[in-house]
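[Primary structure, fold]
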Amino acid sequence: MAKTTIQVEEKTRDMLKGMGTMGDTYDSLIEKLVEFYEEARKSENFVAAQHKIAKNGKFVGLD
């Protein structure tokens, strides 16, 4: 796969370094962050949908 260059502030680079473990590359760290973000966003959407359903009363109780 082709490599690209992105510019980040030194502070951002240092934060990424602090997150990494032995053998991690910046690419692997960024990939992990993107995956984490996508999963968190799905979870937030799910929770928001649950709140909307509860607010509108469109659910069937389990009682």
Q: What stands out?
A: The chain has a mean pLDDT of 84. The CA atoms of residues 18 and 47 lie 31 Å apart. Residues 26-50 form one domain.
